[in-house]
Amino acid sequence: KNARLRHPGIDELPSRSAAMHYEMHLFRSIRQHLGVTPAMYAHAFPHDLSELGTRWRQRLKESVSEGASGSFFYRVLSSGTGAGPSSRFIVKQITRQEKATLMGMLPAYEAYVARRAGRTLIAYFSCHSMSLRWNFSGK
């Protein structure tokens, strides 16, 4: 169900900064139904998440929600076919309660996406937990 993985660029950070990945098998199935290959998904995100790395800063655009939650959103930028970068994925900061809700509905959501052959208004691709301790993260 949950797995603690180490990633390039995070290895030099304290172990408490490692990402926790939730329900990887269900999210993998959801991404498959949505037509997102493992390679597409992996390549969309920066490989170097270290505090010293600068390349990832060019790939993530941070914004703060205008809503009551004040959540952070990160658009994952990639080279688009048009004039500038495009974003296919949005990373949203969620509360523990929102995570519990997502985990509770995930099996039914995976079945729904499978039944609808990947056609859904909102797509959840994964759920991860990590601490952001960088000055510009706002936390």
From TrEMBL:
One of its GO terms (molecular function) is 1-phosphatidylinositol-4-phosphate 5-kinase activity. One of its GO terms (cellular component) is plasma membrane. It comes from the Eukaryota. One of its GO terms (biological process) is phosphatidylinositol phosphate biosynthetic process. InterPro entries: PInositol-4-P-4/5-kinase_core, PInositol-4-P-5-kinase_N, PInositol-4/5-P-5/4-kinase. Signal peptide: none annotated. This is PIPK domain-containing protein. It comes from Coccolithus braarudii.
